[in-house]
Prior knowledge:
The chain is of the alpha+beta class. The protein is built from 4 helices and 9 strands, in the order H-E-E-E-E-E-E-H-E-H-H-E-E. It has helices spanning about 15-25, 190-195, 210-215, 225-230, and strands at about 105-115, 125, 130-135, 155-160, 165-170, 180-190, 200-205, 250-255, 265-270. The strands form 2 sheets. Strands 1, 2, 5, 8 and 9 form a 5-stranded mixed sheet that branches. Strands 4-3-6-7 form a 4-stranded antiparallel sheet. A hairpin with a 6-residue loop joins strand 1 (about 105-115) and strand 2. Residues about 1-55 and about 255-260 have low confidence and may be disordered.
Amino acid sequence: MNGRHDEGLPEHGGGLSHDLPVLARRRMIRLMAGASLVPLVSCTPEGKTSAPSSSSAACAEIPEETAGPFPGDGSGGVNVLKESGVVRSDITRSFGDSAGGTADGVPLTITLTVVDAASGCGTPKRGAAVYLWHCDREGAYSLYSEGVTDENYLRGVQETDEKGRVTFRSVFPGCYPGRWPHVHFEVYGSLADATAATSITNTSQLAFPKDVCDAVYATDGYGASVRNLSGLSLEDDGIFSDGHDRQLAAMTGSTGSTGSTGNGYTAALTVPV
């Protein structure tokens, strides 16, 4: 297993001391991790996508990562998965008995394709489920961070379709100190398992290419992310430093005119399980 841990922020709490017992429990129910087959497609300065490069990597499971200190899946006390309304594609708004807030930021569509690693990644995992979550533009996690403990936005569950795909409409996450911009996700065998918060099969994280981060963070509202990203690299990140290519999203979208991100971006990743 690749047991690695978020460098949690003091203002968020948790961090390594929280992750160690959580990941230790999860290790007992997870399969050996490996690499996905998804090559990087990043946005060019003109806003067009570059062609994916060929990959000769063998099909293996998505690398196993920590869920971090703010999963909201019941492992750390807070459980959003059993709340009515968590099964949704648009995760920009809070739901249920929350404060009803909306997360602002550059639009981002996230598409994950879950495939069967044992079959050579050629068979989609229809009827599986994905729980996905990430921080907001300010780097705060709903349910946990100061000021947004009454919110549950940027969290949601989707069942995979006949092609093994799930799609979430969100906003581009900010960059907080100590971590490269990322998205967390958990894979479950079924929607029933996900909404019962039981039987997680895989936990991993998705990373974003630097050029896209730079374009997004040049827009209003992401000022702190510019500062935080300036001292980071994928090679030095505590999670992605041992092989980020396997979790680097393929990005499409347009930067539009100078200082504009157009209609936002789409991040795609194949997730072998």
